[in-house]
Amino acid sequence: MSKLIPLGYLSAIIFVISGILYFFASNWSGFERLEKVGLAIGMMILFYGASFLSGKILSNREALPKWLLVGGAISFGAAAALIGQIYNSHADSYLLYFIWMLPSIALAVITRYQPFAILSYGLLLLSYWFYMFPASVSINRSDFEEWLIYFGMVILNAIVFGLAYFLKLKPLQYAAFTVIHLFLIIMSFYEVFEPYSSWMNIVYLFVIILSYFLFMKKDSHHTLTIIAFVMLGVFALSKYAELSIRLADKIGPYSFYLFSILGTLLFLGGGIYFAVRVTRKAPDDSLMYKVFKNILIVIITFTSSLLLSFSLGGLLFLIFQSEYSLAVFSLLFIGTAVFWKKLYTAARYTLFITGILIALGVLFILNAGTAILFIAVGFVMILIEREKFLQFLAYSFMLASFISLFSVHLQWMENFRIVLALLSIAQFLLMMVPIDKVRQLSSFCLFYGFLLLYPAAFWGTDWQETLVYQILYFGLSAAMLAFYHKRDGLVKKNITWVFFILFFIGLYYDFAWKLLHKSLTFLLLGLLIFAAVRYFDKEKPAGVTVFTNRTWALIAAVFTLQLAFTGSQSFLNEKALDEGKVVVLELEPLDPRSMLQGDYVQLRYEAGRYEPEDGVKTGSVITVKVKKDSKGVYRPTGETAKGRAAEAFKEPDADEAYLTGKYNGYDGLILGIESFFVEEGTGMELERHAKYAKVIVSDEGNALLVDVKSDLSSLK
Prior knowledge:
single chain; alpha+beta; 4-stranded antiparallel beta sheet
């Protein structure tokens, strides 16, 4: 029992945090604005206070106060999102994640606790993502501006990588290194950021060469080398796609596929030579060397197999004009790879993967007999093959054949959830079979058991049926977490944790039962689990020196600043609501969902339409004058000016007002009131009927959205 105590505490914290986030996202109408702000502040006090008390009084488990402190950092993000929801600021604004990131960075520096660094990096990526792709508004930027934003992401991640490398934060090293490569590859896509895209190919190849000399030649940087090889494979696939676009019409399909096959073989040979060069200094009898070299060969051959399957499959179909010819050739490739054991590893992998990919390409097209044949082939491959990676591919192929048989060929789509659930349960039952050959597949069974059950738990319209699948999913994941928590099964434990977290993410976007009900359920479960674990925690409570008094003082300073921000934002918004002018605007609504803030109606305003003058750049501050008409609706007069209202216009008359926004680069202004947050499930109704918005506007042109209605009388 004592081994499960830390898992119990962590699970309770996850449940409570999820319940709080769900509750705020549900936007329940039972509380007024200031009551919600009070709840947000109380939530922050709860987590920070619990962290301090658990570290000083309640427990001598070192991890608990740190987990609660991370919960406190998350609670601040939820509070900041709630302020935006209450006062209808932009949904998923990049400023939300940026403001959330700052104290997370401070806590990472103060505590030296790695989860804060990971949280900060995740918030940095979200800030940048929503700056590039705003959720509730559209921004039209020039190719050069877009290129600069992407390049800025590369530079920013290079800085993060350097800091993580210096501080030996390996997860951040790997994440930042991967993002650098991904963004450089995207920037090199054909005609995306022309004329800059062509030059980015040279830049990316330079980064690969630099990576080789800085990291890939050193035995201590195996993971960075593997990431570089994976990204090089992605780069090669993207260039293959570009070539297919550029050359297919010019040299003919036969010539193109032949050219592709030749290019793939050259890439395969060059990649193997490169991998051997990288690993040539390691001793031949080193286990790490063998694993590392095999991983590199898998990456190279998998990329080559993708290219070869596309080009060879296309060529064979052109020649024989039949999908059955592809099935025959796929079986020839698989059979050669399985039975020719002495074939060089890279060649075996390439034949094996190419055969499977070609078979998958025709699996859902051919008849049920072919699917049964492929199931048998997959089963034989599992029995004969000894290498784990190839066993995993064979197992995946067999399951894909089962799914195609049931869903397409036997036409069981109406019962697809049942099929997935039965296949999933079969995976968990296989894990219990006391046969060594079957036990060797237990990691595959666990992975596919959750993967197959996941869509069954969230796809469907019958909430009672959905609830049954979700209870089954949760029960299995909880049982697996408890079983593998302290056992020598790192892979199985990590698989279970990933799908356990995905369960909460899936529940957030699942509409089978309301967020409010999920929130109350999780809050209750979290508190019950915490109380039960605390009862069974027999270790004597003692003051644990998790952090020094100086560190606690710095944490308290960060917490005070977070409270000050939350309170000040609420105070300033309430002041603006009291002192501003009431304006009614005509609008055009839509209906999406924010990650943290719940459902909202996306709005476009008649007053926000803007025809730019020459020289007006995207992001320029523009003020428009609106005037009340005979119906009481404020409509644009056509008068606009650059800059804010106080800089461009005199004080407005009683029936006039100013609206200040930023030019979106296309045909309108971003006024900052484009998102109206609603209680869960009410957005579609509002979208169909809403016509007018009640807005509070200051003399400077700053606006706060108060209400949205279908008729004018209800707004007055």
